[in-house]
Design a protein that fits this description.
The chain is an alpha/beta fold and 263 residues long. It contains eleven helices and nine strands. Strand 2, helix 1 and strand 3 form a beta-alpha-beta unit.
Length: 263
Amino acid sequence: MRVGIEIEDGLARVTLRRGEAGNAIDLEMARGLLDAARACATESVRAVLLTGEGKSFCVGGDLGEFSRLSGEALEKHLIAVTGALHEALRTFAAGDAPVVAAVQGAVAGAGIGLAASADVTLAADNASFTTAYTGIGYSPDAGVSWFLPRLVGPKRALDLLLTNRRSKAAEAEAIGLVSRVVAPDRLTAEAVRTAETLCGGPTAAFGATRRLVATGLTSDLGTHLDREAHAIAAAAASAAGREGVAAFLGKRAPDFTRAAPST
């Protein structure tokens, strides 16, 4: 099985399991990611942790698989791969549960899309990033041409996309491609700690916040302010909102899991 998923106490752990191939994305893995995303699309999942086995998080598409096809057959195959992969990204983005990604080693092509799509991305200080697409005569997929300009700005995004230069973890953090850099031996523990912390938070409010940030980049101010007003009103009236205010006034830590479905 190319992609593993384990759900326990509201935390879904999604693992790319082609470590021997750098977790290169073939059709089977793309479909596995879609299955995993759909499994996470439930109220019982409060946070998602995305990781890759082996030395590298994800080196992008499986060029060996692609090279065995040509012409119309190759085009149909790439449509199938990107179709499943992109639907997985849409499904993760549509949910309330925040996504934490932990990346190490080589992160290239679609691997950058997976890393960039996460709400919080932790990188080991041995990670390196390259878009790689135009270096083989391809154009981007996995949302890379959508996420990069929003994270690092259009000018820097084009530099990365056109030159395919390799960025080390420190630069990736400095330009906003990743949230923070940690030592390789702390990556897993820090990613789990972050995901578990989010798992105990107000999931619906997280979902509203994710959507506000995503839509705010393309909305006019008036429209966005209206969305904020409706979102905060709904959050305040929710069980989680009432618990949060009660905890603040009572000078105690909130227990947002009280308002969560049983897992």
